[in-house]
Amino acid sequence: MSRLYFKGDVYTLKSGVSVLDRLLDGGHQIPHSCKAGICHACKLQVKRGVVPKEAQRGLKETEKSEGYFLSCQCKPKEDLHVCLPAGVDKQYSAEVISLNKLSDDIIKLVVKLDQPMPFHPGQFVNLWKSNQLHRSYSIANLPNQENLIEMHIRYMPNGKLSSWVFFELKKGDSVGIQGPLGDCFYQISKQDKIKPMLLAGTGTGLAPLYGILMDALKKNHQGKIYIYHGALADTQLYYVENMNKLAENHDNVYYIPVVLKSSGLVDGIVEGALDEKVLKTSDSFASWNIYLCGDVQMIKKIQKQIFLKGASLKNIHADAFIPYA
Question: Which end of the chain is more exposed for a tag (fewer CB within 10 A), N or C?
Answer without folding.
Answer: N
